[in-house]
Amino acid sequence: MPIKKLLYLLSTLIFYPICAQRKKTDTVYVYEKVVVYDTVYLEKPLKIKPSGLNFKPAVIDNLIPVTTQYEFILIKDTTKGLIISPKKFDWGTGAGIGLKSSSWARESSKNRQQPGFNAGLWISRNMYKRFSMMLSAHVYYWNSTFNLDANREETWLNGYYFTDDRQPLLFQKFSDKHFEYAAQLKIFYEWKRIRPFVGFLANRNIYKMQFMVPENNIINKLDDFKSKNINIGYSMGIQYRIMQKILVSLEYQAYTMKNISLKNSSFNFDIFKTNNTFAERKINLGISYTISSW
């Protein structure tokens, strides 16, 4: 028994130091720092003298200033350079209201201003830089300011009249209500949104006077005597572009009616004296719309 205890004690003394020298295994974490570098390129102009190289600069041929009236332009690449070709033609429609004053109707009417409205078509072409030319055709309708009716009242035109071949005519009605057909040629100058203009016009007023005329030697037929005179005058005014295709305008027109006559192809008669001259003036407020360009 003592021997066993001795052996146990010896073995404890021998193996304890050995076990005490064993190292404990630890986990080691290694971290790596990653740095990302970007490449930055710098451009610097260099003064280099070309040797034996000839460069021909681009030339813009037939340059035409493009104003707000053009919606698109056409650019062509040629050996001579760039050619800028704006659209030169516009066409559209217009309408408006106005007042008309006629010198020959002043004595017959208390209202000197005759109201009316109009509608028409126009075509415009660019001429030079800011200048353009317009050709238009309009139809006007003017309301009546006076009516002479022999069946209702005594008028200064009541009575019988006779043609050159002695046929009797009996006056019935006359009104200054009428249609007017007008053609105009205008020259515009465009500055920003403002377009002043001047022009020439030719118009035809269709006045009608009604008579009772003979048929089979009996005065029992109503017939009209109409004016067919073509009058020449001028116009001036200003347009303002409120949108790309919409313009408003204020216009003044004046023309002279020379040798006005009311005639009927079946009767050689004219109630107006020869060599008469009358003047008419108009003020119109209108709006125009550009339909297309090319």
TrEMBL record:
Domain of life from the UniProt record: Bacteria
InterPro entries referenced in this protein's UniProt entry, alphabetically: OMP/PagP_B-barrel
Protein name per UniProt: Outer membrane protein beta-barrel domain-containing protein
Record organism: Chryseobacterium angstadtii
